[in-house]
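Tutorial handout. Part one gives the primary structure; part two gives the three-dimensional structure as tokens.
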Amino acid sequence: MKQQPILVEIVITRWKDPVTGKFVKNPHPTLKNEVRRKGEVKEEIPLGDGEYAKVYFRYKLNRYGYQVPSSCRVVWPSVREAVSRGEISVDDCKRIERDLADEILKDEKIRANRIMEKELMQEGYNSDKAKRAAATRKANKARKGKAPAPSEAQIKADFLEAQNKLEKAKRANPKTAKSKQIQQKKIQSASQKMATVKATAKRHKVSL
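Part two.
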């Protein structure tokens, strides 16, 4: 047996303007708490007392090649809940969120500029340091290139001088700990001098 349809009464609640009598939008709607748009970066910022705000940033590349915040929107969940409870209007909610967004954007721009300035200063310092080092190397190279090559007689004389100093230091008979320390330094210095002279002789093909 075919079932008969059931009668259902649907009650719709709507709002009317008390003056004009025209239907109007719900003054206390349930607002969305997630309104991210394409190209926005979402962050959650604590506001204290367990509250938080969802912030949606847009960034742009400045002339120095850094990403800096250009705009932001705020969703404050507790304020939006107050709208649905009829405690504040939608316009009040928008104004509160807009004021908070302006304040957050201002702080974020200041922070981003400080980071950028610090990094640019460091890059400038490193660049200047590299330029100074390159100039020093170039000057040293030019100075070495202009220095006259030592003669064979000079190389042999330097070698004999270093050799005599080394032998003299080794023959010394120090009595105290300090004297022994001085002797070791003299031996080390003379040995280094001899090694330098030998390297010079080898470079200029001089037989010692």
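Part three, for discussion. The mean pLDDT is 85. Helices lie at 77-84, 90-146, 152-171, 177-203.
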